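Action item from last week, closing it out:
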Amino acid sequence: MERNDQVDLLLRILQRFSETGVLGQCMLIGSWCLHFYRFEFGKANLLPAIRTLDVDFLIPHPGQIRKPVDIPELLKEEGFNPLMNFSNGLVRYQHPDLLVEFLCPELGRGYHKPRDIRLWKVQA
């Protein structure tokens, strides 16, 4: 597996999420999954190497989160800064190498406002 600053940073985030129980309640989605699939399945020529600066985590069942974790503080310790979108209230976390965002399923048709995940202090 190729190693660089982006990969090392993401691995540290995944390790911290695992240690705090966050990774049991969310999953990595998007182009970064392909990077890990290439490594895990050894079929590097079948999967594109393209990935973006965006790292997306899906929270499939936000209402089932029971353990409080200060994710903004955890990300701050890794050099991330909050970046608010004032048009919709969504906060993403920016680092020179990566941008972390949390997503959750829509609550209803046409509902596009961020959902407050209070126990984790993030919006998805």
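Closing note: The chain has one domain: 5-123.
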